[in-house]
């Protein structure tokens, strides 16, 4: 019996090693990944303003643990898209394990400078590539980038933002809000480009802000238009011929175009 104990111990070690090794053995992905979306459409963004974060879920529907040789953006380091795969940021990832009947998340964002395209609107497309060669799978990433006119408070010498005086409280303290006075050459909003406003844009006393047909105004969080005493706001919206484009209406909305 004593002679059997070493043999049993050796067999136990072999079985334990085999079971552990199986836990870490992955088959190479064969191009059968499935995705929560065929194409990831990000929200429309304004030039140099980051998008919201979008997600893509990648599924391994098979009964086998697999390893994805690579996940990368087709444009590589020059891509304007940003990825985060399972909590790790980058644009190229290698040997990503994915257990049987499991999934992983990929988070996607973008920021684009439309000046490089020299257009008022630009459809920016890249592809998210999984593996390469015969097993390559791809998911297009698409976002519409728009040029815009940005209006915002200036930064003062002490690092604070320009502000507007609203009045005094009961103790005589100034009540201020982050904002700025519109200059004379900023008092006519046309339909040439959208306007993106940060903080409060104020119309001075005896001044008129005129908003032409088809103008689009987008307000960041905690932003708006203030009209001072004696100032006025003139909105020249008209009925549109196209009920979807609304080409003559004046539209006020937020700056997240989702």
Describe the structure.
The chain starts with a helix and ends with a strand. The mean pLDDT is 89. The chain folds into 2 domains: 120 residues, Immunoglobulins (Immunoglobulin-like, Sandwich), CATH 2.60.40.10; 106 residues, no CATH class. The relative contact order is 0.13. It is built from 1 helix and 23 strands. 8% of the residues lie in helices and 44% in strands. The chain is elongated and about 85 Å long. The strands form 5 sheets. Strands 1, 3, 4, 6, 9, 11 and 12 form a 7-stranded mixed sheet that branches. A 5-stranded antiparallel sheet has the order 2-5-10-7-8, with no helix packed on it. Strands 13-17-20-23 form a 4-stranded parallel sheet, with no helix packed on it. A hairpin with a 5-residue loop joins β14 and β15. The chain has 258 residues and is mainly beta.
Task: Quickly give the structural class.
Answer: mainly beta
Radius of gyration, in Å, reads: 29 Å
Number of domains: 2
Strand fraction: 35-45%
- Give the overall shape, derived from the CA principal axes: elongated
CATH topology of the largest domain: Immunoglobulin-like
Order of helices and strands: HEEEEEEEEEEEEEEEEEEEEEEE
How many helices? 1
**Unreliable runs, pLDDT <50, ≥5 residues?**
none
Q: pLDDT average, as an integer?
A: 89
Secondary-structure arrangement, i.e. CATH architecture of the largest domain = Sandwich
For the termini, the CA-CA separation is 74 Å
> Would you report the number of β strands?
23
Question: Which homologous superfamily in CATH is the superfamily of the largest domain?
Answer: Immunoglobulins
Major beta sheet, specifics? 7 strands, mixed
**Main CATH class of the largest domain:** Mainly Beta
């Amino acid at each position: 019996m004593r002679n059997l104990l070493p043999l049993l111990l050796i067999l136990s070690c072999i079985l334990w090693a085999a079971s552990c090794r199986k836990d870490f053995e992955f088959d190479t992905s064969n191009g059968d990944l499935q995705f929560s979306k065929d194409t990831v459409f990000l929200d429309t963004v304004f030039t140099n303003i980051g998008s919201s974060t979008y997600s893509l879920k990648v599924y391994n529907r098979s009964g086998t643990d697999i390893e994805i040789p690579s996940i990368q953006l087709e444009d590589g380091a020059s891509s304007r898209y940003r990825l985060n795969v399972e909590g790790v940021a980058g644009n190229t990832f290698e040997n990503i394990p994915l257990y049987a009947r499991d999934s992983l998340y990929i988070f996607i964002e973008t920021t684009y400078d439309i000046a490089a395209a020299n257009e008022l609107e630009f459809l920016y497309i890249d592809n998210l590539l999984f593996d390469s060669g015969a097993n390559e799978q791809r998911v297009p990433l698409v976002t519409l980038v728009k040029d815009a006119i940005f209006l915002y408070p200036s930064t003062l010498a002490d690092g604070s933002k320009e502000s507007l005086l609203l009045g005094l409280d009961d103790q005589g303290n100034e009540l201020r809000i982050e904002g700025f006075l519109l200059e004379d050459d900023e008092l006519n909003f046309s339909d040439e480009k959208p306007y993106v406003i940060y903080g409060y844009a104020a119309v001075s006393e005896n001044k008129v802000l005129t908003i032409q047909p088809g103008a689009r105004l987008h307000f960041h969080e905690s932003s708006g238009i203030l009209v001072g005493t004696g100032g006025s706001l003139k909105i020249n919206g008209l009925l549109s011929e196209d009920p979807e484009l609304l080409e003559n209406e004046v539209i006020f909305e937020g700056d997240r175009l989702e």
